[in-house]
Write a structure and sequence with these properties.
481 residues, alpha/beta, 11% strand, Serine Threonine Protein Phosphatase 5, Tetratricopeptide repeat, Rossmann fold
Length: 481
Amino acid sequence: MNSISDSLAIAILHQQAGRSFQAEQIYLQILQEQPNQIDALYLLGTLAHQLGETAKAIAFYRQALAINPALASVHSNLGIALKQQGLLTEAMQHYQQAIALQPNSAQFHYNLGLVFQELGNLESAKDSYRQATILQPNYPLAYNNLGLVLLQIGEVEAAITCYKTAIELQPDFAEAHQNLAEALLLIGDFDLGFAEYEWRWQMFAPEQLPNFATPQWDGAPLDDKTILLYAEQGLGDTFQFIRYADLVRDRGGRVIVACLSAQVELLKTVPGVAQVLALDEELPEFHTQAPLMSLPYLLGTTVETIPAKIPYIFAPSSHNFQLVASLETKLKVGIVWAGNPGNRNDSKRTCGLQPFLPLFKIPAVEFYSLQVGKSSQELAQLPADIKIQDLSSYLHNFNDTAAAIAQLDLVLTIDTSVAHLAGALGKPTWVVLPFVPDWRWLLQREDSPWYPTMRLFRQELVGDWAGVFAKVGREIMKYEV
């Protein structure tokens, strides 16, 4: 008859080989004989965790710790499972207990840093990641995440150093290359930044990558060949980088564009574009292709050479709705306060409606909501004495949004697709930005080399939207059409 240790060894072999059912049966049999057999409880927890049964794993880990609370690895695994369930404070407590029991574990400090980072406690996250790198100097994940935190608190050069260290330790670390690219672009180092930005493709599974039979363009003269330029990321990215179409045409190419269907009609107005199709349409023949966001790299763009001739997108000349304003109105302002919640930086860039409230009391200014989607419903929660014209029912695609923008004096928006559209249309556009913005807005400047009619209003402290909008309010009072 097998001893408990022999049975555990056999079960572990089954678990390692992926024979989950056999492993589970042995663990359960051991617990029938010895209900408090701590190794069987812990291993059942790891098995459930591997199978994605997180709640079940948590229960087994808790049972094990009830028997012996001095097991660092169980505290750590329980922390991981709790974090996956969104129970961040409890996860933090178990990581801290694991560290108290085993203070020299770089992994435990790294895991604690992940929770602090998700909780928004950036200083504590920084300390945890830094401790992980001290305990394990060859820990690329810790250096990468330390870089992310340093960037968020404005220590951009230190973040760049961390990303470079992560890459030295793991040269094929695509996420660190991508993070380095965005940090370099943020400080205006376009030469190195856009080269590193090409690593973004390594972050996708092969089945998610574009699959074209034709070669990717290398920037050489096109000699009357047809080139496909295709959208690859967000709507705003397409509006920003479609400006390169006429430069590509000037290389001797016939340019066709594939984009999201909501942008098709509007992008037909872009100089240099011969044909525009939706990404899900059957494409015509072409000789070469390039993703839109690789064009600055292929064409050697620097901050000084950004093609910024505006407008390069044009609103429809006629439309089926007209904005209404009272006779006292001196300024018509379109607003956007929320972005796509699927964007990884949305919580940082979205300010909500609350910071706008003082602006709505400024006399002779009419506000029009360009917000679409679920967030547009937030207008119904405003005080009864605040009247904002909600245009969402008219805005079915970006042609409609462009037609609305054309009738405004000013667009006031967060960093989202409307900011890029308004900038591309040449409309005076004010963009409110978080403390450390997306790379395209660079640092410390109030203008944008991408959009000559744009002004940038930046947080001076992390999360301080009130300060941003106080400045916006003062500037609106001085604004003259």
